[in-house]
Amino acid sequence: MPIDQPQSENPYFIDAENAAEMARLTNQDRLITQTMGGLFPPDIDLSNVHSVLDVGCGPGGWVLDVAHAHPKMQVTGIDISKLMVEYSRAQARVQWLDNATFITMDALKPLEFPDNSFDLVTARFISSFTPKTAWPEMVQEFLRVLRPGGVIRLTEPEFPISNSPAVENLIAKFARAMQKAGRSFSPDGRLMAITPMLSYFLRNANCQNIKVQGFVLDASVGTEAYASQYQNTLVFLKLLQPFILRAGETTNEEFDKIYQQALLEMQLDSYCSVWYYLSAWGTKP
Predict the structure, then answer these.
(1) Is 28 left (phi over 0), alpha (psi -120 to 50) or beta?
(2) Which residue has the higher pLDDT, 145 or 2?
(3) Residues 182, 227: Cα–Cα separation, whole Å
(4) pLDDT of 67-119, one tens digit each?
(5) Pairing mode of beta strands 208-218, 161-162
(6) Residue 83 maps to which CATH number?
(7) Distances (CA, A) of 74 to 61, 67, 69, 82
(8) What's the CA gap between 229 and 212, in Å, rounded?
């Protein structure tokens, strides 16, 4: 979309029906869950969790994992992408997971569920498509479909940090493009600055027992996560190209040159990279 297109019309900077994006998200989902040490926060009493909603479920990895690990739970994933939902449904059928349901739905609009429908609502990495002005109303909508005493959990990343000049160059361009698009809380466009906002959103929604937990994924050369994150990064950076171009942050020629250099630098033995993200959760009064 043009950078000045109204955010309500199309807030997605990567085509939601893109098969490469689906494959990338499948890989990323595994890394996130592994780095977070499991599917749920350690202090949640799962005996009270019978129905779960995953907002922006993508290819459904988290929903499928929860449905497999907890066969008595009813787990629902929603995503705007028909491709993602169809793929997730196929995976649920193949794995004989009758307790996993996937629905095409726009998380930025009122959710098509009755009040108090779920015991737990989770949303991971949805800041990429959520305008900063939409967060308060969206969190309220999550709480509407959550039963009293239920848990809401928000998990969001900041931009990866590395010692690659080319990768950092592209990430900086992306950061400025996100600020122009109204999806960054950073005053100067260097960061997403979404992580310090998560507990604020929960407090403003009158959630109780709010807790936060930080995570770091080390994707440097020689680490267990390097190969997967290398593939994730090279696909992600390429998919960002149209969005960065529309923001006026680069040209096709310049982007391609920097991108090729980034691929070379990510393969150096000295390449180091970490990725920080934060999870915040609380209960509905």
Answers:
(1) alpha
(2) 145
(3) 32
(4) 999 999 999 999 998 988 999 999 999 999 999 999 999 999 999 999 999 99
(5) unpaired
(6) 3.40.50.150
(7) 15, 7, 12, 21
(8) 25
- Domain count within the chain: 1
Q: Domain residues for 33?
A: 19-283
153, 121 Cβ separation under 8 angstroms: yes
Helix ranges (DSSP H) in the chain: 19-35, 61-69, 82-94, 135-144, 165-180, 198-204, 226-246, 252-266
* Domain membership flag for residue 247: yes
Give the type of residue at 128.
S
The tokens describing 206, both together, are 């009158």
Tell me the per-residue pLDDT of 27-76, one tens digit each, with 9 for 90 and over. 778 888 888 989 998 889 999 999 999 999 989 999 999 999 999 999 99
What pLDDT does residue 12 have? 55
CA atoms lying within 13 Å on the CB side of residue 2: 3
